[in-house]
């Protein structure tokens, strides 16, 4: 196809020397350029499609018969079947696996975890524990439009109230409010991941969903976004740093921390 377009393009100057006027030549040139663009886009879509194919899969099994798929770009996804049906989440942090294994082997089977929705499917499908939420809401679908997850692939949504409550529990500076929200959903554990803080975009959305201005909670230092004084007072910052949380740190590694209500 590209060769044919190239040949057609080489005819344009010849056509211009003949009886055809400049307008016709311009039209042909536009058609050729459009065809090249369409061909390039089609090729890009095909290459992108091939990238979606996993390079390997791993059958985890367990209560929910989980399977992990790994991709060339380093990303992973989880598929599993629980009491509500089949689930497939394109976002799975492989670095969390050690912590997820700990959760599976060291916490009560009926425990509920408060976490940002990105980790909900991993905790439910892999670690086999209940979560406060595991999906974005219809109201905040824009959150996934710039992420790895294709928005059109989102088939599950949580009530917006859940998403807002979790955002408030993490962004508040009042630990009592966090506890009250956890009690509302029967959660006795909290999970935070290293990428929950700035400069990663998740924290921006947490503040937005909670109805807060993200810019009021961080500063720019050496071209890097960091929590400012107000940001450091939030439960999210304190949980990430294990500082004045009011909870008991029961697990930590280089990527995640797990806290339990005292």
Model description:
The chain has two domains: 2-51; 56-261, Rossmann fold. The chain has nine helices and eleven strands. Helix 1 (2-17) packs antiparallel against helix 2 (22-51), helix 5 packs antiparallel against helix 6 (175-184) and helix 5 (160-171) crosses helix 7. The strands form three sheets. It has a five-stranded mixed sheet, with helices on both faces. It has a four-stranded antiparallel sheet with strand order 1-2-3-4, with helices on one face. It has a two-stranded antiparallel ribbon with strand order 8-9. The N and C termini lie far apart (67 Å). The radius of gyration is 25 Å and the shape is globular. The protein has 262 residues and is an alpha+beta fold.
Termini gap: 67 Å
Number of helices: 9
Low confidence ranges: 1-17, 24-51
**CATH class category of the largest domain:** Alpha Beta
Give the SSE order as H and E letters. HHEEEEHEHEHHEHEEHHEE
Number of strands: 11
| Spatial ordering of strands, largest sheet | 6-5-7-11-10
Structural class by SSE content? alpha+beta
Percent of residues in beta strands? Answer: 15-25%
Cα shape? globular
The largest sheet is: 5 strands, mixed
CATH topology of the largest domain: Rossmann fold
Brief overview, please?
The chain has 262 residues and is of the alpha+beta class. Helix content is 40%, strand content 20%. The chain starts with a helix and ends with a strand.
